[in-house]
Amino acid sequence: MIEAVIVEDSELARFELEHQLKAYPQVTVVGHAGDVEAAIVLIESAAPDVVFLDIDLPGGSAFTVLERLTQVPRIVFTTAFDAYALKAFAYNTVDYLLKPIDPQRLAQAVYKLTEAMPATPARRSMDSPIFIKDGEHCFLVKPRDVRVIEAVGNYSRIYFHTHAPLLYRPLGAIETQLAPEKFFRASRKYIVNLDYVEQVAPWSNGGLMLTLRGGLEVEVSRRQSARFREVLSL
Amino acid sequence: MTLKFWLLQVPGWSLFLLIAYFARPSEASVPDALQFAAVAAVSVGGMLASLGLRWLYRALQADGYGELRWLGVLLVASVLAALGVDLIFHATLSLLAGLSPGLAALYDAQPMISRAALLAPAFVAWSLLYLAISRQTRLAEAARHQNDLRLALKEAQLQRLLGHISPHFTFNTLNNIRALILKDPELAREQITRFASMLRYPFAAGEEALVPLQEEMAVVRDYLSLVALQLGQRLRYREQVDPLALPLPVPRFCVLLLVENAIKHGLGPSSSGGELCVDAATQGGALRIDVRNSGRLATADGSGTGLDNLRQRLQLSFGTRAGLRLDEQDGCVLAQVWIGSVA
């Protein structure tokens, strides 16, 4: 069962998409929204599996919605014309539909959703992506791909693959959204994904130095080192 | 060209006549009147021959010769023309010599080829002048033609830009009508008709740049009725058009462009929507159109190009007696067009 939310500017467009989705019994539409504010409230409260999201919205755009969500569900963008806005995404991680929506394209999109949906919801927090818009570039990053998060004032720098975009959210706020068994607060400045830790070496002052896959080094403060040993039962 | 040609031709050959008369060798045995008549006959002959030269040059101009080649043609043609006139004159005189002793004396006094010496430089001068003037005329004509083309092209481009229907609007409308087919087939049919008349508008009535306000307003209403499918309750429309203003000419797309801007930059992006008013008033043949929407005037948001195009369009059709102004007033954005009066 896939729970979906439709965010469309026009009432007729919402009606139209819901009508088209009736062909797929595995998809249940759990709510509609017509502008940015309503969309954020609805998505936060309904926590759907997927959002069909119009790019052009009253009160902002699809990106305004994504930037303000703490947990981003899977997104299928819908647009009348400006698919070029999606070129901003670093990878082809997003799906989009051009309105009026071709039934075959919709079938493909739904098929992809069904395939990608994890069997157990427990894993979702590692797979439900974070949306980052750094200047012209957009990213949807799965937490499992993130190696390190670094505090840069009120921003956080997210290291994943070969990218390190800035997210306008303080490190503490991000920490609360991440799975605590995977993400470890190494110090005031860093959060580390434990899956990427390759080497642990003692460091000055009773701290530790972690070497991560891909070459990053992160220092663990003395206070957190004790907790680190605990977590990994060293 | 022809008038100018004869205005130069007649005084030119009269001047030749005077010079030839006063520069003639004195012939005591021939009466002055007869001498003058002879010079006049040569001048008329020269003038007739110059028409032949004109015919020749015109025929050759199409080939686009270089300067040197022209010079050769010009010298050969001038000398041949001079010899030709001289020969014909001499032959005619020899036939007339038997008629009177005066003519016989004239015939004896002026040997063959004696006039060619004066005629040849005259033809060279004539040819140079003719070619210079005709080249100048043709250049000016080409420049004017090019200018006309440029203006026509600019006007066509402007018209095309103004009549551009946004793809965003087009696809949203199609999507909305698609839904409407399920919900309200009758209304869907109506909206398709409106959409069709909107799409047809850029091509209607011979693509004239100016249309009666009435025609423009009909399309504006079609457009707004389609936009209402998208915006629903968020669009509140009001219009007040003076019936006397309806037949007055306005640039095609003029009101449509302002209304489109109001939707795109004013009501569309706002969650609560807003009010849109179109007022048209006339006084003494002058027309004022106000398009007002609730909202703020955003600076540099890309609406400038359309307005610039409309400004140019107004200027092309009405010069300084028309204009466009964009203002913010009491929480409203006001776009105002005036035609037929000074601001």
TrEMBL record, chain A:
Is Phosphoprotein found in the keyword set? yes
Report the residue ranges that make up the HTH LytTR-type domain in this protein. 130-234
- Residue ranges of every copy of the Response regulatory domain listed in the record: 3-114
Which UniProt keyword terms apply here? Phosphoprotein, Two-component regulatory system
Q: 4-aspartylphosphate-modified residues are where?
A: D54
- List where the protein spans the membrane: none
Supply the PROSITE patterns for this chain: HTH_LYTTR (PS50930), RESPONSE_REGULATORY (PS50110)
Molecular functions (GO terms): DNA binding; phosphorelay response regulator activity
- Any matching Pfam family: Response_reg
Q: Which InterPro entries match?
A: CheY-like_superfamily, LytR-like, LytTR_DNA-bd_dom, Sig_transdc_resp-reg_receiver
The protein here is known as LytTR family two component transcriptional regulator
- Give the organism the record lists: Tahibacter aquaticus
Automatic annotation (TrEMBL), chain B:
Which is one GO molecular function term here? phosphorelay sensor kinase activity
Q: Which GO terms describe its cellular component?
A: membrane
Q: Where are the transmembrane segments?
A: 5-23, 35-56, 68-92, 112-133
Which UniProt key words apply to this protein?
A: Kinase, Membrane, Transferase, Transmembrane, Transmembrane helix
Which InterPro entries does this one have? Bact_2-comp_sensor_kinase (IPR050640), HATPase_C_sf (IPR036890), Sig_transdc_His_kin_internal (IPR010559)
Which ranges carry the Signal transduction histidine kinase internal region domain? 156-235
- What is the protein name given in its UniProt record? Histidine kinase
